[in-house]
Amino acid sequence: MHLRSATSWWSVIMSVLASAFGVQSQQNYQRDFGQTSILPYVVVGVVFVVVFVIALMLLVTYITR
Length: 65
Fold this sequence. Notes:
Layout: H1 9-20, H2 26-33, H3 39-64
């Protein structure tokens, strides 16, 4: 899976993180929705959610021990 367009994996990751925390700029928002494939954003988004949930579970387990 290669992103040969103007979007690199790093910019996809940063866009997903910015969107998750509600700080995505309008310029980046327009750039992201101008891409032809949504697949990289979905993959990174799902990985982010899984890692975030696991991190929260570990934090709660650590605190309540």
